[in-house]
Amino acid sequence: MFKTVLFPIDQSREAREAADVVVNVVQTYKSRLVLLSVVEPTTDGESIDPMQSPLSVAKLLENAKAVFEQQSIPTEVIEREGKPAFTICDVADEVGANLIIMGCRGMGLTEEGLTDSVTNRVINLSPCPVLIVP
Questions:
Q1: Average pLDDT for residues 71-95, to the nearest whole number?
Q2: HSE-up of 49 (CA within 13 Å, CB side)?
Q3: What angle do CA 34, 39, 130 make, to 5 degrees?
Q4: Domain total for the chain?
Q5: Which residues belong to any copy of the UspA domain (predicted)?
């Protein structure tokens, strides 16, 4: 049913908590797992967020891959630059994802958060089902 699962990750607690659900789904359906980290490009010469430096993102992906491989889950990693919601949906289409699993920061609880939420945008733009882990 879910041959390919895309798991967009960042440094958030919500992404770490969603990892347990990813393990469960991938093991249950014997899915291919693709990890994705999206770095938003800087604008107006702003200094880069230390949590989004190339070294930090590479370490995040390496650590996440190791966690999944400890569970005997082969994992592919992709690092991209762009607007997170659009990039997540583009990569889902590229890899033929049947499911996107994401952690939710809960920002959609307000009208302002709803319009700015990456999660909400992915839900509306995704080429496949999206499982949101609260």
A1: 96
A2: 11
A3: 45
A4: 1
A5: 1-134
- Report the alpha-carbon distance of residue 59 to residue 24 in Å, rounded: 24
Q: Are 113 and 107 in contact (CB under 8 A)?
A: yes
Q: For 47-70, what is each residue's pLDDT tens digit?
A: 456 666 778 888 999 999 999 999
CATH of the domain at 109: 3.40.50.620
pTM beyond 0.85:
yes
Could you tell me whether strands 130-133 and 99-103 are parallel, antiparallel, or unpaired per DSSP bridges? parallel
Q: How high is the mean pLDDT of the chain?
A: 88
CB atoms within 10 A of CB 101: 25
Q: What is the domain range of residue 30? A: 4-133
For residue 44, which phi and psi values (nearest 5 degrees)? Answer: 55, 30
Check the CA dihedral 76-60-23-130 and report its sign: negative
